[in-house]
Amino acid sequence: MGITIMQSAPPSEGTGQIGCKIPDETYQQDEGEHGSPGLAEAVINGDRITAVKLTQEDMDSGVSACDLLQKGLIAGMEVVGREFKVSEFYVPEVLVAPKAMKGSMEILHPHLADAKIRGIAKVAIGTVRGNLHDIRKDPVAMMVEGAGFGVMDLVVVAMSALLTTTMPSMKNTLEVFRKAGMRDQVKVRIGGAPVTQDYEDSIGAERYTPDAASAVDAAKELVAA
Amino acid sequence: MLVVGELINSTRKRIQPAVDNRDVAFLQDLARQQGEAGSHYIDCNAATVGIEREPDTLKWLVQIVQEVVDLPCAIDSPNAGAMLAALEVHKGKPMINSITAEKEKMDQLLPVIKQTECKVIGLCMGDGGMPQTLEDRLRNASILVDALSGAGVAAADIYLDPLVFPVSTDPSYGRLVLDGIHELHTRFPGVQAVCGLSNVSYGLPQRKWVNRAFMVLTMGAGLDAVIVDPLDASLMALVSATDALLGADEFCMNYLTAARGGKFDNLQ
Question: Does B59 map to a domain?
Answer without folding.
Answer: yes
